Amino acid sequence: MFDLPRPIIHKNIYIGGLGISDPKPLDEKFTALMKKGRNGVIIISLGTIAPFHVLPQKVKIGFANVIKSMPDYHFILKVSKGDTSTPSFFKDGSNFDFIEWLPQKDILAHPRLKLFVTHGGINGLEEALFRGVPVVVIPLFADQFRNGRNVEKRGVGKVIGFFCSSMNMLFLVHLAKSLAFCLDITYSETIRSAIQEILSDDSYKQNAMRMSKLMQEKPFSAEQRLVQWTNFAIENGVLDVLHVQGSRLNSIVYFNLDVIAVVVIVICSFLVIIFKLLKALGRKLFVQKVKQN
Question: Membrane spanning segments where (predicted)?
């Protein structure tokens, strides 16, 4: 439901949301955390591939300034184990907690959670939208840029940062260097503007709840699709009837090279004819002018 409609073949079976189970009760630690904040709780989790500590210093300061300016909300920041650099940027204020691990699926279902700030991984987005939680996406690489665009098109959140879309780093050291160059310079204001817009505009929450309803009430769950189609494939073997004919085309036909060649030949022939006509007309006018002289 989250992905935008597009033409697909019958062999493609969507199983988005696979593994999203009923939420479990939070333990005492997280129950206490979710009670903090007069207006609710906001979670900031940027995943494991690019954790919070690899972000440039200016970005961390930007988040710290935003959190400090919103005392009515309590922020839960997911950090890596052993991360000692990030807490040093959050010395002032008391409306935040650092967590090395959190039960994301369960905490996203908590009624006091107001917003989920994420890197835009598809699993986290589906878990949040399945519970009707609006999101702020900071895409870092790969499919996260497309996921961010889908978030804005669905009206369930905002995208901030706009890291270079061509960035697809394999090493965190290269990632950290690129982040400093690619991220929007107005860190604090950009982050604050996106968060406050979602919190003040009810349409984001309404759209997220609408998406949640669609995801939960669609005719077949991801688990049902996976099991039924797996059994179907086992029982029937290779399904040649679902094979796409386009995969059997040679390169010339597949890429329409024959059609392109005809079009190019026609255009070139037309240009040659025009050139020859203009050349003949010019020669005729030149001869007439010489005779007159």
Answer: 252-275
